[in-house]
Amino acid sequence: MKILKELLSWAGTILGSVILALIVIIFIFQPTSVDGHSMDNTLHDKDKIIINKTQNIFRSKPNYGDIVIIDSRVDRKRTFWDNVIDPLKYNILVSRFSDNNQQVFWVKRVIGKAGDELQFKDGKVIRNGTPLEEPYIREPMLYQSEDTIKVPEDSVFVMGDNRNESKDSRMIGPIPQDHIVGKYLFKLG
Questions:
Q1: pLDDT class of 159 with cuts at 50, 70, 90
Q2: Cα distance between residue 135 and residue 132, in whole Å
Q3: Structure confidence at residue 102 (pLDDT)
Q4: Catalytic positions, written as ranges
Q5: What contacts 28, CB < 8 A, 6 or more positions away?
Q6: CA angle centred on 38, ends 22 and 116, rounded to 5°
Q7: Which domain CATH number covers 167?
Q8: DSSP secondary structure code for residue 142 in this structure
């Protein structure tokens, strides 16, 4: 009987720890890794990073220059359950042991916020008529466009620091606020 009580105590402790870890990963902090070269020279392929997910709880919006992790599936509405299931489905551990290598989460930098007008000329991003000074980009951007993009309400425009090798808002459009999964906090190692 004493052994059974001890086993149940251990099982309760382990279960409680697993539940606490899941809550932290789903809602507060999540480890992930960078996949690809779109953020060179700031972040590199295979870098292990920690993301802060509390902006979803407090409804805070990112600032210019923030590095954010986005859900690139902008053609669908994100739900509360996406926030619960996605960290379990798309993570470092699962991708190592399964063939689930979908790259739905992208690491990008916030370039424009709601109401901003963006243009791309002469290797520069022009926000609201002013060329941006971007010391973090890898090299001048080759992309040019005659179009002016106005960032819609409750959205951001994101780009990779390696502008010539990045899939970003230039391809999929502005990112709805609810598709920002988290904000880059720090690199491990």
A1: very high
A2: 9
A3: 58
A4: 38, 108
A5: 52, 53, 54
A6: 90
A7: 2.10.109.10
A8: -
> Which pLDDT band, with edges at 50, 70 and 90, does 47 fall under?
very high
Residue 43 lies in a domain: yes
Segments in 74-188 forming alpha helices (H)? 80-89, 92-97, 169-172
What is the C-alpha to C-alpha distance for residues 171 and 158, in angstroms, rounded to an integer? 10
- Among 13, 6, 154, residue whose Cα is nearest residue 77: 154
Q: Which pLDDT band, with edges at 50, 70 and 90, does 99 fall under?
A: low
Is 183 among the domain residues? yes
Is 117 inside any structural domain? yes
Read off the tokens for 128.
């609201």
- Vertex 179: Cα angle to 95 and 129 (nearest 5): 125
In a domain, 70, yes or no: yes
What pLDDT, on the 0 to 100 scale, is given for residue 187? 92
> Tens digits of per-residue pLDDT, 56-91?
777 788 999 999 999 999 999 998 888 887 777 766
Is-contact 81 25, C-beta < 8 A?
no
Query: 152: domain range?
Result: 29-187
Total count of domains within the chain:
1
Give the global pTM: 0.84
Pairing of strands 130-131, 124-127: antiparallel
CA contacts within 13 A on the Cβ side of 8: 5
